[in-house]
Write a structure and sequence with these properties.
Helix content is 48%, strand content 15%. The chain has helices at residues 13-23, 31-41, 44-55, 61-71, 90-102, 117-125, 166-180, 182-189, 202-213, and strands at 3-6, 27-30, 81-84, 109-114, 127-130, 136-138, 158-159, 193-197. The strands form 2 sheets. It has a 5-stranded parallel beta sheet with strand order 2-3-1-4-8, sandwiched between helices. A 3-stranded antiparallel beta sheet has the order 6-5-7. Helix 1 crosses helix 9 (202-213). The chain has 9 helices and 8 strands. Bound molecules: adenosine-5'-diphosphate (ADP) (2 copies) and zinc ion. Residues 130, 132-133, 135, 150, 152-153, 155 line the site of zinc ion.
Length: 214
């Protein structure tokens, strides 16, 4: 099964993708994580993306489409993938349709995680992750079982994203409403959109997604 998780920054896409990946034979494809890796590695793509990501804008369609086009061909994607953070513009959505067709693959569902705007800043400013395995946490909403120790891998090192600050969040929300929100209409019209209540507890959101996927 191949799906898209749609929602504003901080909605819980990454959190849910991590859980779906654990419960089903599917792999999480986060363009944000891939771009952050490119920035860290100092690659050509990373150099182009760095400043844009810091400001909260969107990296060019060509770059992210190219990344996804290649990534979907990897063997671990053959049983299914969860797109987290892609597509984010109508041209990206159209390109995705094309490249899936070309590869003989299809999209099974687009799941919208609905969250009140007022909750997003808190979710983003409290977000951090394990520096070793990438598991996501939150200062108050999702703490490791043992303080300072990652549940998944036992690491004691954690990181916060450079763009997870109140100033950048405003621009990211603006990018979302300007460029990404139209995708809700696009997928609704194609009969592929399902919505879940992203304000619910993390486990309840997972349950609703499971139900939506059938
Ligand atoms: P996204 O990938 O959509 O940007 P994340 O999955 O990183 O969002 O979630 C943002 C922050 O909110 C994380 O710190 C996460 O632990 C927390 N979070 C995710 N889902 C929920 C939820 N349903 N209720 C409360 N906090 C949540
Ligand atoms: P979020 O928590 O906002 O969902 P992501 O990790 O998905 O964050 O993305 C972080 C940043 O990476 C975005 O603000 C944007 O600059 C860039 N980015 C990620 N995916 C895309 C995409 N599909 N198109 C353009 N830019 C992207
Ligand atoms: Zn870890």
């Amino acid at each position: 099964m191949n799906i898209i998780l749609l929602g504003p920054p901080g909605a819980g896409k990454g959190t849910q993708a991590e859980l779906i990946e654990k419960n089903r034979k599917m792999v999480q494809l986060s363009t944000g994580a891939m771009l952050r890796a490119a920035v860290k590695a100092g690659s050509e793509i990373g150099k182009k993306a760095d400043a844009i990501m810091k400001s909260g804008g969107l990296v060019s369609d060509d770059i992210v489409i190219g990344i996804i086009d290649e990534r979907i061909d990897e063997p671990d994607c053959k049983d299914g993938f969860i797109l987290d953070g892609f597509p984010r513009t109508l041209p990206q959505a159209a390109a995705l349709d094309e490249l899936l067709k070309k590869k003989g693959k299809s999209l099974d569902a687009v799941v919208e995680i609905k969250v009140d705007d007022g909750a997003l800043v808190d979710r983003i400013s409290g977000r951090y992750s394990c520096a070793k395995c990438g598991a996501g946490y939150h200062d108050t909403n999702l703490k490791p079982k043992q303080a300072g120790v990652c549940d998944k891998c036992g690491s004691t090192e954690f990181t916060r994203r450079a763009d997870d600050n109140a100033e950048t969040v405003k621009n990211r929300l603006m990018s979302y409403y300007r460029e990404t929100a139209p995708l809700l209409g696009y997928y609704y019209a194609k009969g592929q959109l399902k919505s879940v209540d992203g304000m619910a507890h993390i486990d309840e959101v997972t349950r609703q997604i499971d139900q939506a996927l059938g």
